[in-house]
Amino acid sequence: MSEIVGLDIGATTSCVARFDGRAARMIDLPDGSSYLPSVITFVDGGYVIGHDAIEAGRKHSTFMFRNWKRQLGAKWHDMEDTGFQTVESRDEAGNPTGFLAYQGPDRCYLPEELTSLIAHELLRAAQDKLGAMPKGAVLCVPADFIQSQRDAAERAVLMAVDRLREEDGKDYPFTLELMHEPTAAALADGYDAKRATRIAVVDLGGSTLDVSFIQSGGGLTVVKTTNGIRDCGGIDWDKMLADYIVSMWRTEHPDLADPATRDAAMSLILTEAEDVKKRLSSKQETSFRIDDFDKEPNGEDVHLNYLITRKAFEEMTAPLLRRIIGACQIALEDAVRIDPRFSVKDLHAVLLVGGMTRMPSIQEAVKQFFQRQPSKKENPETLVAFGAAIRGAMMEGRRPDLAIQDISSHALALEVVGDTAAILLPKGSPFGASAAFDVTNEIDGQAQLSLRVLSGEGSRPSTCEVLASTEHKIAFFEARKARVPLIAKIDASGRPTVILDGKVIYGEDEAA
Predict the structure, then answer these.
(1) Local structure of 327: helix, strand or coil
(2) How large is the average pLDDT for residues 137-156?
(3) Do residues 427 and 406 touch, judged by C-beta distance below 8 A?
(4) Which H/E stretch holds residue 114?
(5) Can you tell me the distance from the alpha carbon of 382 to that of 119, in angstroms, rounded to the nearest whole number?
(6) What is the mean pLDDT of residues 355-371?
(7) How far, in Å, CA of 101 to CA of 108, rounded?
(8) pTM for this model (two decimals)
(9) pLDDT digit string (tens) for 365-399?
(10) Which of 184, 235, 433, 475 is at 20 to 30 A from 1, Cα to Cα?
(11) Is 472 left (phi over 0), alpha (psi -120 to 50) or beta?
C-alpha cells in the first residue's frame, strides 16, 4: 500500500517512518537497523553509504563525506573555513558556479547531491516495506533554515525520486511537503493528548539548533515562537575536541606531521571525536584512540591515545552550551512580546529532541533555564520522523482530527531606498498568511522599479538573503505617484511567494 512517509535526513543520522493507522513507526533499513548514518564514502569507482561508509572511511577517509547538511545551498567563499573537502562547484564546461561542493574522486558533488543519495536509500527501504513506491513524503528541515537551504533539501529528495523512477522504469506521482523539525517533534509527542499543553521544544542535532514554544494537544499543534542557530550542532562539539587533540599531538610530537595539514588524518580524528562524545554521555572518562596513526622516522608505528574526561570535555565546550541558552532566551523574549504575562513557569513540559540532548551537561543547562526537568525520551532521534509520518497521514486524510499551525522563522521583505528593508510579512507570520501592498517610485521621472525580495531578520538588506531581483517598467510619474500592486504570501508548508502586478517574481502561484 502506497503512503506518504516521513523523512528525517539529519547531519549525523537519517531515518524514515510511516503511520500504520495507530501509531508512527520506524521503517527498518536493509541491514535491520532503524537509522542510517549520514555518511558516504566513495571507493572502487562507486560509493557505500551508512555503516559501511564509516568502515570504508577508515581506509579511504579522503573521500568519506559527512556533516554536509549545514552547507545545503551554500555559496562558495574562498576565505571561509568550510572544511578540507570543500571546493567551488563547476558546471559541465568546467566553469565555476559560485556554490560550495565536496570534491569526490571523479568530480565535485553539491551537498544536495549527497543528500539525494541518503534520500534514495530511505525511499527504497520504504518501497520495500510498503510494497509500492511511497506516493509522497514529508521532509523535515530545521526551523531556522534559510530559503536556499530549504530549496536545496527539497531538490535533494526530488532528485532521489527521479532516480528511483528511472531505475524502476515508472513515472509514478510523488508529493513532497517540508515541515519544521521542532513542529514535527511536538506533533509526535502530543498528537493523542486530550488536554492542551504549552511546551518548549529544544531540538539540537548534529548540525543545527531550534528552540520553539508550542501549544499542543486536543488534536491541534500551534507554534507560538521559534528561534534557532544554523551553525550550532554536534559537529561543533566534535570539532572542539578534535582541535584539542591536534594541539596535544603538536606539543608531544613536534617532529611528526601536523594532522591539521593532512586530510585523511583530520577525517579520522573527527570520526573518533564523535564516538568519544557519545561515550562521554554515559561515562565519566574514555580513551581517544586511533591505532597506527603515524610512523616514527625509524618506521615504528605511533598510536594516538589520550584519556578524555567528561569534565574536561564539558569545560572545553562550555561556549557552545552558552549559545544554546542564548537561543532559549531569545525564543522566550519573543514569547513574552506576544504575551507579556508569559513566563517559563507557564510551561507544562520541555521536550528534548535530537541526539545531542543525550549529553548530561545540555540536559542540566536546559533544566536550569526552564526551571523544570526536561522530558527525556528513550530515543530523542525518532520524534521528528514520527511527526513527519503523522503529518503524512494528515495529508492523506487518515487523521482528519489533527491540525497544525506553524509560523515563519524569517521575515519576508522588500529592499527600499537607503539600504533598508520594508517588511512584507514579519517573522512569526502563520503559514497561509498573505498581505497586499502598493509599490511606488522614489524619484521624479523614474522609468522602472528595481526590486529585491529578501528573507532575514535585520532591517538592512546586507544582512538578508536575496530571494529574487526584478526590474518593472513604469510610466514617468512624479515621485511617489506610481502604484504597482504587490502581494506577499506563505503557503501551507512555509514557502513564500511574491507577486508584482500579477506576475510571480518569487515562488510559485497557480492563481497568479
Answers:
(1) helix
(2) 97
(3) no
(4) helix 111-130
(5) 17
(6) 96
(7) 6
(8) 0.94
(9) 999 999 999 987 778 889 999 999 999 999 999 99
(10) 184
(11) beta
Determine if residue 260 is left, alpha or beta; phi over 0 gives left, psi from -120 to 50 gives alpha, anything else beta.
Answer: alpha
Sequential DSSP letters for 157-223: HHHHHHHHHHHHT-----EEEEEEHHHHHHHHHHTT-SS-EEEEEEEE-SS-EEEEEEEEETTEEEE
Grid coordinates standing for 163? 532516480
Q: Are 226 and 331 in contact (CB under 8 A)?
A: yes
How is residue 327 written as a grid cell?
537561543
User: Residue 507 and residue 117: Cα distance in Å, rounded?
Assistant: 26
Q: Are strands 285-295 and 136-141 parallel, antiparallel or unpaired?
A: unpaired
- To which H or E segment does residue 155 belong? helix 147-168
Locate cell 579511504: which residue? Answer: 60
Are the C-beta atoms of 73 and 112 separated by less than 8 Å? Answer: yes
**pLDDT tens, residue by residue, 22-75:** 999 999 999 899 999 999 999 989 999 999 999 998 888 889 999 999 999 999
**Residue type, position 66, single letter:** R
